[in-house]
Design goal:
It is a single chain. It is built from one helix and four strands; from the N terminus they run ββαββ. With about 70 residues, it is mainly beta. The protein has a four-stranded antiparallel β-sheet with strand order 2-1-3-4, with helices on one face. β1 and β2 form a beta hairpin.
């Protein structure tokens, strides 16, 4: 049983989608909780991959990261 305490602030649920760079479809995702949107963005930055990513909270898209350009050299 979970008991809610008055004035207690819970964690917010987020999902970070890792997109396939060619098809644009979801390749995989990570679910996590954070204190607020800014903290969630910072966590997502730490999981950055070469392909595009999108960070969502329920129906809100918080941020989209483009594919990291390939550099030769």
């Amino acid at each position: 049983m979970v008991v809610s305490q008055p004035g207690a602030v819970g964690m917010i649920y987020y999902r970070l989608y890792f997109m396939h760079p060619f098809s644009g479809h979801i390749d995989h995702y990570r679910e996590f909780e954070a204190e607020n949107d800014e903290a969630a963005i910072a966590i997502a930055e730490g999981w950055r991959e070469a392909g595009p990513m999108e960070l969502w909270n329920l129906h809100r898209k918080l941020r989209h990261w483009d594919e990291v350009p390939f550099t030769d050299g």
